[in-house]
Amino acid sequence: MTFTIFSITCFALVASALGCGVPAIRPQTIGSRIVNGQNAISGSWPWQVSLQLPSGVHFCGGSLINQNWVLTAAHCAVVVSFHRVILGEHNHGSNVEPIQVKLVSKVITHPLYSRATFNNDIALLKLSSPVTLTPRISPVCLAPSALSILPGTRCFTTGWGRTATTTSPLILQQTGVPIISPAVCRQFWGQSRITDAMICAGASGSSSCQGDSGGPLVCERSGVWSLVGAVSWGRTTCDTLFPAVYASIPQLRSWIDRTIASN
């Protein structure tokens, strides 16, 4: 991973001071694959959010970015006040995990989001009350606008999405995926479909899938994890030989910052 303009050391120091991107419970990042996935260590991705219907049915993922805001995909932002934001969950089948349940007071979708192309597929959810931070619940750092990620960099995506075309897991899954350059990604998806507001990763034997939408793509440097993407779209069959496409946090960072500052 490389930074342009923005120093890696400076970013790590700032992140540490802000208390973001450093899990109290370290994730297992060796040899993991969500389709062809691996169970995550409980609590090791403390920013992971489950968006659920009142019935408890999970429908999308998200990332806690501070005590009041969750970042997800715009196509997940059918969220209204009666839907629930679940933090600190690992096993959907457990009733004893120390989770926090929040309602949403405001949904803000990127004004240039396109339902047809999934461009600018990002939304912010303002929580009805602040999250209490714990070793199992803490925010991820947002990648800076100046971030440039080298193709081949191994990053991680997490979620409760399908592990096959018909199977959804109870346990949070994780997979390591390499970042793919826009040029290579366009070879898979076509020149016009991949925009500057998208980042591609995968095509290496594992993939995000339905139900992972809105969830995090994170990269680590010097022990600090930063959010570089939000799960957006891919093959409906979750083909692990095709890259998945994520909303690019560096490209959309200025909108995120302006939106939070004014709301």
UniProtKB/TrEMBL annotation:
PANTHER family associated with the record = CHYMOTRYPSIN-LIKE PROTEASE CTRL-1, CHYMOTRYPSIN-RELATED
Q: What is this protein called?
A: chymotrypsin
The organism's taxonomy opens as:
Eukaryota, Metazoa, Chordata, Craniata, Vertebrata
Q: Boundaries of each Peptidase S1 domain copy?
A: 34-261
The signal peptide annotation in the UniProt record is 1-19
Answer yes or no on keyword Manganese. no
Where does it reside? Secreted, Extracellular space
What is this enzyme's EC? 3.4.21.1
Record's keyword terms, sorted: Digestion, Disulfide bond, Hydrolase, Protease, Serine protease, Signal, Zymogen
User: Membrane-spanning residues where?
Assistant: none
Which molecular-function annotation in GO is an example for this chain?
Answer: serine-type endopeptidase activity
Q: Show the Pfam families listed in the entry.
A: Trypsin
Under the heading CDD domains, the entry gives: Tryp_SPc (cd00190)
Gene Ontology biological process terms, A to Z: digestion; proteolysis
Q: Which major enzyme category is it? A: hydrolase
Cellular component aspect of the GO annotation: extracellular region
